[in-house]
Design goal:
The structure holds two protein chains of two kinds. By secondary structure, chain A is mostly helical. Chain A is about 60% helix and about 5% strand. In chain A, helix 6 (about 150-155) packs antiparallel against helix 7 (about 160-185). Chain B is mainly beta. Chain B has two domains: about 85-530, Methylamine Dehydrogenase, Chain H; about 540-630. Chain B is globular and about 75 Å long. The relative contact order of chain B is 0.13. The chains are: A mainly alpha, B mainly beta. Chains A and B meet through strand 1, helix 1, helix 3 and helix 8 of A and strand 6, strand 9, strand 10, strand 14 and strand 15 of B.
């Protein structure tokens, strides 16, 4: 393997190993709080762990991501809804997995927004059902969203034709979600807050795996 | 980690027809030695794991008296024991109601102030180290009934996967907000010399005052890490780094390449760090191992999931989530998002992929655990990422649980699935666990977030079953459930996300005898990291032999006369003194010989192979004991 990187921080130990505690901060003691320094630096004792703990605020870009992704997920759920009566076994199972995942994620995103006092897009079953009747303008503001025409085409398909269309559209839809995640992390200060960081990375990992599966299924069908 | 949910399943128009799903694609060998890769994936489809709770419970709940949290309706895709006490848990805070069988909570130490979500655990001597998104806490567990918070180390940067090796403690950091100097204020901008993402190394030789001695930066940070050692080489410890976050700018860390098509891409690799134990500040990344590479073409993005007929799928996997090394057998199990990998780690600096599996039932390959013999490996599926409910009545039992593989000639063959046998509506999915060292059996203790802790037997890898459990009601303050549950020197330690550190002990149950528990407690380790699996060895004790007698009695393979005789002889041998010792030794040796030649009846539990193996272990234990008496 070429291009190994030797990454070493903490080149200089200011104090020899094993004889640091006496010379620097006092012992943490039972139940005490210690804050280490940079590599090689001594640790110090903190008076109040709460004051020294991080408290990252979420950003406007975080909120836009969560709100947008709720709509994005809602359309995916509307697509899986169509699969229930139209798809073959394999695609129906895939659709079921996507439905369970994205349903829960919608709730997670709603709770995240609610807990932070931000506007929460409500996605009722009714709303999901009518998701595909939204206008082209509404649909086009997020990557991967299907147009009204595409949704109608999916709704009117069945059997093998439906399976092919569903996989093709859902792969496109998932790829759009990956773009949204990439855009989130590219925004200044976004994606730092712990919960949204973990959530977005999970969406990314999950949907990338599903894209791989659906691509394989598509290959088989063709 | 996200907030918890107590939402009920809203619907589930999918019926139980979906319960038995086929294994789409298992196994394909890319490396040389691909004997019989016929079609790649025609592995047997195991029947769904039978749901056999350890009945009868000491006090089964009558569902007609009390209202369970989940009822069996048409939406359910699997069935369970409706008397299971976990179904009736009411929500609560730190002291929420508990349900337990075969284990009990001895002590709890609440989350210290200033600390966020708890994560993974490591152990050394009398100390338990509990990882946290904001740092880690060190507990003195000399008295497991009374853990004492010894020192808290505040050094933010999630998720805080921990390992301990001698005087060194390792901690994983992936957060873009984490700082080299452990400060809480975060880092501004996409390029900063203050940012730290990678593996921190602390010196804990002064346990009162840990100090950071090195911080090894990696391109994607460290979601998890795993220690690796080479038997006979005490001078170095190696660290495999799994990074699942984005690639940082090459301006911040030279060499980082976020383009997936670049041959130098920072995707498609695990980093190998070598740490000289005597000079940890010299720790460096010595290799970016392309364990996903195609053996023939050399394409670094060479590992793909498999289609049903064994053909490679299109887009490749780019990272492992976690790796479990087992140096004594020379293998590691790589849980690598879309695949399970078997790695040859005999040269820790150069892990080599020898086999990989894919499974259509698995969403996210999360972690791995070997059995002690190294003949079986369990992979877990963190479907939903640990922030979603995945153990509901509407969630299929093959999804979001464990897949159990036998390792046959360096290849993994699927045998069964295991998932906790009770529906849970809050956040729940398979998570971290370790072996429980009951001799003669393969037993694992495992955390399931708000599904609690489950202990199951997988000695027969095709028929795993639960033998003990513990859970609390959902946390009304949010953030409950277990990240990790590991056995260490006699007890089960649970890292509860929001409720701190739990310590539990095993209690006798239908499938776990007092002797088996006591024999497990004879195994003492100096340190323990669940992902750096040690070979368990049992000291020669009388309770070891008695545990095997209990197992053979439970299997129903010996006559009751033989069982009584074994117990009597073991008891009298243990109490023998003076001249009686050599007589007892003679008797033990003679009976061991008789036992070795005896015909075993057909077992009522387990397989003939398992009973035979337990018999062999008993014979060996009796001969060893006789040796100590002479």
């Amino acid at each position: 393997m070429t291009g190994w990187r030797i990454v070493l921080l903490g080149l200089i130990l200011l104090v020899p190993l094993g004889c640091r505690s006496g010379a620097t901060a006092g012992p943490g003691g039972t139940g005490g709080v210690v804050i280490p320094g940079a590599p090689g630096e001594p640790s110090r004792v903190a008076a109040d762990a709460r004051a020294a703990a991080p408290d990252f605020q979420h950003t406007e870009a975080d909120v836009r991501f969560m709100q947008g992704m709720i709509h994005h997920h809602a359309q995916a759920v509307a697509m899986t809804d169509l699969a229930r009566t139209r798809a073959g076994d394999a695609v129906r199972r895939m659709a079921h997995r996507i439905e369970l995942s994205q349903d829960d994620e919608i709730q997670i995103m709603q709770r995240w927004l609610r807990a932070r006092g931000e506007a929460v897009p409500e996605v009722s079953a009714e709303h999901m059902h009518h998701m595909h009747h939204m206008s082209g303008d509404e649909a086009s503001f997020m990557p991967g969203m299907l147009t009204h025409e595409q949704m109608m085409r999916l709704e009117n398909a069945s059997g093998r034709e439906f399976d092919l269309l569903f996989l093709e559209y859902m792969i496109h839809h998932h790829e759009g979600a990956l773009i949204m995640v990439a855009e989130l992390f590219a925004s200044e200060g976004a994606g730092y807050e712990v919960e949204i960081h973990d959530f977005a990375r999970h969406v990314e990992a999950d949907q990338a795996i599903e894209i791989r599966r659906m691509t394989a299924m598509l290959e088989e069908l063709r | 980690m996200m907030e918890q949910t107590n939402d009920s399943p809203r619907r589930g128009r999918w019926t139980r027809r979906l319960a038995a799903l086929p294994v789409m694609a298992v196994a394909g060998l890319v490396a040389a030695g691909c004997g019989g890769g016929s079609g790649g994936g025609a592995a047997a489809t195991p029947a769904p794991t039978p749901v056999t709770p350890p009945a009868p419970y000491p006090d089964p709940v009558d569902p007609t008296d009390r209202t369970p949290n989940v009822v069996h309706d048409d939406d359910a895709v699997w069935s369970w024991d409706e008397r299971d006490p976990r179904l009736f848990l009411e929500p609560g805070g730190q002291n929420a109601p508990q349900a337990a069988y075969g284990m009990e909570l001895m002590a709890n130490s609440p989350l210290p102030e200033g600390f966020g979500t708890n994560s993974d655990l490591a152990f050394a001597g009398n100390y338990a180290f509990v990882g946290n998104y904001n740092g880690y806490n060190i507990y003195d567990v000399s008295n497991p009934a009374n853990p004492v918070l010894h020192v808290s180390v505040l050094c933010p940067g999630n998720q805080g996967d921990l390992s301990v090796h001698g005087n060194l403690l390792f901690k994983s950091v992936q957060a873009a907000s984490a700082r080299l100097d452990c400060g809480p204020q975060g880092v501004d901008g996409p390029v900063s010399p203050e940012r730290f993402r990678g593996v921190r190394i602390f010196d804990i030789s002064d346990i009162q005052n840990p100090t950071q001695v090195a911080a090894v930066q990696t391109c994607r940070g460290s979601h998890t890490h795993t220690l690796v050692t080479r038997p006979g080489d005490d001078a170095n410890v190696y660290v495999y780094v799994s990074g699942t976050s984005g690639v940082r700018s090459g301006e911040e860390l030279p060499g980082c390449v976020s383009d997936r098509d670049d041959p130098e891409s920072s995707f498609f690799q695990i980093e190998v760090i070598r740490v000289p134990v005597a000079a940890p500040h010299e720790a460096t990344v010595i290799r970016e191992s392309r364990v996903f590479a195609d053996a023939e073409t050399g394409d670094i993005a060479g590992l793909r999931g498999l289609t049903r007929d064994g053909r490679p799928a299109q887009s490749p996997i780019n990272a492992c989530h976690d790796i479990t090394t087992y140096p004594a057998i020379g293998y590691a199990g790589g849980a690598c998002s879309g695949n399970g990998l078997l790695l040859d780690i005999r040269d820790p600096a150069n892990p080599v992929r020898v086999h990989e599996v894919a499974d259509a039932n698995f969403a996210y390959w999360h972690s791995a655990t070997f059995n002690n013999d190294g003949t079986t490996v369990i992979f877990t599926d963190e479907w939903g990422g640990g922030s979603s409910p995945r153990c509901r009545a509407i969630d299929p039992p093959e999804w979001g649980g464990n897949a159990i593989f036998d390792i046959v000639d360096g290849r993994m063959e699927l045998r069964s699935y295991y998932k906790i046998p009770v529906p849970i509506n809050p956040t729940c999915v398979a998570h971290n666990g370790s072996l429980v060292p009951v001799p003669g059996r393969d037993i694992k203790v495992q955390s399931w977030y708000e599904g609690g802790i489950s202990i199951f037997d997988f000695t027969d890898s095709a028929n795993p079953f639960e033998i003990a459990f513990f859970n609390r009601g959902p946390n009304t303050q949010g953030g409950g459930g277990f990240w990790s549950a590991y056995w260490y020197n006699g007890y089960v330690y649970g890292a509860e996300l929001g409720r701190g550190l739990d310590i539990l002990r095993l209690t006798p149950a239908e499938f776990l005898s007092a002797n088996e528990i006591e024999a497990a407690m004879t195994v003492v380790m100096d340190e323990f990291n669940a992902q750096h699996q040690p070979r368990i060895e049992w000291p020669v004790t009388f309770v070891l032999a008695r545990a095997h007698v209990d197992q053979l009695e439970r299997a129903g393979v010996l006559s009751s006369g033989m069982v009584e005789r074994l117990r009597t002889e073991l008891a009298s041998a243990e109490g023998a003194s003076g001249n009686a010792r050599s007589q007892a030794a003679e008797r033990l040796t003679s009976t061991a010989g008789e036992l070795a030649g005896a015909t075993l009846a057909a077992p009522v539990h387990g397989t003939p192979e398992i009973a035979n193996r337990q018999r062999e272990l008993l014979v060996q234990a009796m001969r060893d004991l006789a040796g100590t008496l002479r």
